[in-house]
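Annual report, structural modelling task.

Input specification for the MGD complex:
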Amino acid sequence: MACVPADEASLIAAFGPHLAWEPPGGFAARGTPDRAVKTHCCFCGQQCGVQLLVKDERVVGVEPWEEFPFNQGKLCPKGIKRYLQNNHPDRLLQPLVRTGNGFAPIPWDEALDQVVERVRRIQAHHGPDAVAVLSGASLTNEKAYLMGKFARLAVGTRHIDYNGRLCMVAAGAANLKAFGIDRAANPWADIAATDLILVLGANVSECSPITTDYIWRARDRGARLVVVDPRLTPIARTADLYLPIRPGRDVALLNAILHEVIRLGGVDHAFVEAHTSGFSEVMEAVRDYAPEAVEREVGIPAHRIREAAVLWTQAPRTMLLHSRGIEHHTKGVENVLSCINLVLATGKIGRAGCGYATITGQGNGQGAREQGQRCNQLPGARDVENPEHRAAVAAAWGVPESAIPRKGATAPEILEMIHRGEIRGLISLCFNPLVSLPDATFTREALERLDFYVTIDFFLSETARHADLVLPGSLQEEDEGTVTSVEGRVLHIREAVPPPAEARRDWEIIRDLAHRFGAAELFDFHSSRAIFEELRRVSRGSVADYSGITWEKIDEKMGVFWPCPDEAHPGTPRLFEGGRFYHADGRARFHAVAYRPPAEEVDDAYPIILTTGRVVSQFLTGTQTRRIGPLVDLYPAPRVEMHPRLAAELDVTDGDPVRVASRRGSVDLLAHVVATIRPDTVFIPYHWPGRRSANRLTVRAYDPLSGIPEFKVAAVRIERLPAVERV
Ligand SMILES: Nc1nc2c(c(=O)[nH]1)N[C@H]1C(S)=C(S)[C@@H](COP(=O)(O)OP(=O)(O)OC[C@H]3O[C@@H](n4cnc5c(=O)[nH]c(N)nc54)[C@H](O)[C@@H]3O)O[C@H]1N2
Ligand SMILES: Nc1nc2c(c(=O)[nH]1)N[C@H]1C(S)=C(S)[C@@H](COP(=O)(O)OP(=O)(O)OC[C@H]3O[C@@H](n4cnc5c(=O)[nH]c(N)nc54)[C@H](O)[C@@H]3O)O[C@H]1N2
Ligand code: SF4
Ligand SMILES: [Mo]
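The model returned the following structure:
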């Protein structure tokens, strides 16, 4: 490969995305596969079982894996088409170095030496914390574990965080506060066995498609369904009761439902007294939240709120499920705590068919949040500031406690520090912040200020274009390891094929860098399994105890639920049985929460609420799915969803080009006029970069307790564009 100039057209010609890509010779001309490898989908937290078909050491197709219990062979469109990544023409096959005006290939040894030399130079001038590490939750447990240890002991920086900061942290922080553990409380079989499902801010059919099947199984038995969402999503269309909330108002709604449940006599006093603490403060806090008092603010008539409370009170068994719709807020933790208050007050947890869960987002959204790659966390979901936790990890690693840096900055704070010039070097794996962080213009400015940036990816992501070095890593099917699914079930990812050409396994790249950073004895790993064995040992005795899990046991049982403290232990599918929680006194904690408004309210200049999220065919920043032709065909470009009444006010009809502007920037998109959204709210999916990126509009405002960004509420104005400016 010759040098590729760094202008947009040359980069796209060399590295894509090549959108309409199909395998050479077409889909039918592949012949009989050599083998089928049982593994899991590389995309969302459902982690569906799938068989990858291999021919001539390339993945060429998929087949259902019907025996795998979670999805029993079912897959969504992304899972069916993911195999098209493996032979994709955009695949990075050699390390690349930025030259004066573009990217040129560079030998591996030189690339790795350069990383160490440039990082150490920055650290010598500006201190060890002038370099940050960003990691991801699509990575296996082994890689997530390795990244935390690598940042702290090889690079020697306190600043390590991950893209789950944009995803799971609000739910995680709230679960830890309330329960003393951060894991879905129930196996998914409990959804199928319940009497009422309350779904808040989760577009289940498009974003956790297999969960729909569990809900339908419950519905077949007569279970009721209540959905809270500003959009009448596919799952909401099938609900008994749909509550079209104004974005950002969930605390007010949940407090009102609890207020009404208390009035109806729905509190389980025996459970509250025996197994919880703090209920009287919550009783006091919800006193002023009568449905009539909140109906205008939340945008739902009081009688509908009362109906929800009646359904909740009457159902013997309930499952409350939520997702990013209530978590992507400056009060994300409080939203989640108000859900948990309702569950605890009615004692509806810890039984068959009865409980609570946040629906994990990323492929390893669960496991990657407990292996120690968060700025505030060490392996085993331990607290980096807790002296006992630090001592336990230091002893397991064989280093003095002082060798473990203290708490660092969150991922968005890292970008803010880069913008201010306080962090000057960046190492990233599995993160595309230019597309995924709020206020993309600010993120771009920050990236341009870095003295040195190296990223490991298999495609040239939008962020990677700003790198000094790009190292070709591995697709999920090119490595072995474990992930932990939405249920808390630890699963085995099998290597289907080796990495192509000069691409290398991610963990091998990190290990080789650690050796060059002078930490060879701490990173003496010859397989990803050796990393898992260390992870088991280090997690022993922690809340996220994996020490009793072996790869053989996972294969034999089709997954093992953590905590699993010894090899004879069967794993823990359902938490909190018998009302036993994970705080030292065994009790769950209530937290009184008061409603407060979003960071940015609508006003005369920006009168419309923008909320953002997903469509079924695209995944996250689209680096992977925008390259898969058959998925692009399903939803080729982002559109702005708006209600016919708003469209009429704006003089817009379906398909018209419009400009959506916030205080941060603007995007030009086509209007999608649908009756399935509140008239005061518009929705844009965020999977696209550049001039179509929803994150040019979103606000840099964060939850003070978890650091999660407020992706779900911003104020915008919309104008119709003249036809000549059609996009
Ligand atoms: N197809 C697809 N599936 C995915 C992903 C993907 O990119 N594509 N990503 C995965 C990941 S990482 C994640 S985190 C999950 C996300 O899964 P979800 O959270 O289900 O998806 P989102 O589209 O982000 O938001 C969910 C819903 O929240 C609603 N909402 C917006 N604001 C509010 C509010 O203030 N209150 C309430 N109650 N609801 C609100 C939106 O209308 C939307 O329908 O999906 C996972 N699965
Ligand atoms: N406006 C708005 N913004 C959002 C959201 C929203 O709802 N609205 N949702 C937020 C959420 S919930 C999430 S999870 C984030 C996701 O945001 P990101 O994590 O930034 O998005 P990804 O697309 O997962 O980017 C991961 C990058 O790593 C690469 N990659 C994936 N797997 C691997 C691997 O195994 N090895 C290597 N080497 N590389 C890999 C991919 O090619 C991609 O370039 O976006 C957040 N941003
Ligand atoms: S539901 Fe999630 S894990 Fe299952 S096939 Fe679709 S993207 Fe993959
Ligand atoms: Mo996510």
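Residues 44, 167, 200-203, 206-208, 228-231, 233, 245, 247-248, 250, 323-326, 361-362, 611, 613-614, 616, 618-620, 683, 712 surround MGD (ligand 1) (CB under 6 Å).
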